Amino acid sequence: MSTYKNLKEHIEEGILTITINRPDKLNALNSQTMSELKDCIEKAYDDDEVKGIIITGAENKAFVAGADIREFSELNEVNGRKFSERGQEVFDIIENCHKPIVAVVNGYALGGGCELALACHMRIGSKNAFFGQPEVTLGIIPGYGGTQRLTQLIGKGKALEMMMTGEMIGAEEARSLGLLNHLEVTKEEAMEKAKEILQKIFKNAPLAVGMVIGCVNAVFSKEEDGFQIEANSFASCCKSKDFKEGVAAFLEKRKPQFKGE
Ligand code: COA
After folding, report:
1. Which residues line ligand 1 (CB under 6 A)?
2. Residue 147 sits in the same domain as residue 215
3. Is the entire prediction scored with pTM above 0.85?
4. Phi, psi of 29, rounded to the nearest 5 degrees
5. Does 75 have pLDDT greater than 90?
């Protein structure tokens, strides 16, 4: 496992928990944290020990309170574009990971923090979770994919309201909008729920799970035909050993032993 300055890693029962660890700055994503996050997720792609990932924030006040505003004073038109594209790249790696990634949201998920949660495949919150895209209050817009992913997830009207007012919404409203998959009381309970869901997923064929992620992401792609991707992915599943094992196990009335092959 790597040693990062701003991330903590912990692996247990196939789940890699990545904790954004800058609590004195409400876990704000500075450029070093973004580089570390990219490195950490890329390593997890190929690590057979990692079957799924939880991303959360250190302590209880914030998941992530945004990109680090202290770095904003250096931004101009040229490096601002790079800043946005770099953030989009890191969050695309999260969204396209073939292993399930769950955000456990405690406290503030603002700006880049909300966008980080949106890039994950699911979001589980505690009662003190707050979501917001306050970029317009600073004179910018969400630049790490938020204008796209928030709209995909909660619909145009409410997404526009959140992004144009810059106001936060609480956990109950986030749950009712589908921004949160599940709402628990405490952060600890949210972590337990995330682990419970991941363990259910781990019982299933890993190749098929990864293909579900790819097909669902294709719904929102302009270049790809999602139905074509679905048919191709279905065909790939049909040639896998796990498919044969899944069908055999059903017919033999036993639990399948999937190997990801
Ligand atoms: N970037 C850099 N530092 C941040 C930050 C961010 N996005 N969010 C919080 N911090 C820092 C504060 O500057 C402060 O650091 P300091 O003690 O060295 O001054 C520390 O985290 C604690 O934050 P503070 O503002 O004192 O806490 P609060 O409880 O009064 O307010 C928030 C909490 C979340 C409402 C407030 O911090 C905030 O509005 N943050 C910015 C949110 C934002 O606009 N994010 C989107 C950026 S595009």
Report:
1. 25-26, 28, 65-70, 108, 110-111, 134-135, 138
2. no
3. yes
4. -85, 95
5. yes
Ligand 1 atom 1, closest CA: 68
Q: Would you say residue 1 has pLDDT above 90?
A: no
Among 69, 115, 165, name the best residue to mutate to test ligand 1's pocket (greatest count of ligand atoms within 8 A of Cβ).
69
Identity of residue 166: G
In a domain, 137, yes or no: yes
> Considering the domain boundaries, does residue 108 fall inside one?
yes
Q: Looking at the domain assignment, is residue 150 inside a domain?
A: yes
- CA–centroid distance for 182 within its chain: 14
Distance 67 CA to ligand 1 centre (A): 10
Decide if 101 contacts 145 (C-beta within 8 A).
Answer: no
- CATH code assigned at 144: 3.90.226.10
| Residue ID of nearest Cα to ligand 1 atom 21 | 25
Atom of ligand 1 nearest to the CA of 62: 34
Structural domain for 107, as ranges: 7-202
CA 26 to ligand 1 center in whole angstroms: 6
191-211 pLDDT tens trace: 999 999 999 999 999 999 999
Residue 260 lies in a domain: no
**Mean pLDDT, the chain, as a whole number?**
97
**68 and 154 together in one domain:** yes
Domain count for the chain: 2
pLDDT above 70: percentage of residues in the chain: 99
Expressed in angstroms and rounded, the spacing between residue 60 Cα and the centre of ligand 1 is 14
How open is the CA angle 6-11-14, to the nearest 5 degrees? 140
Residue 182 and residue 53 share a domain? yes
For residue 205, the number of C-alpha atoms closer than 13 Å in the C-beta half-sphere is: 20
> What six digits make up the tokens of 180?
């949160």
Residues 82 and 173 in one domain: yes
pLDDT score, position 222: 85
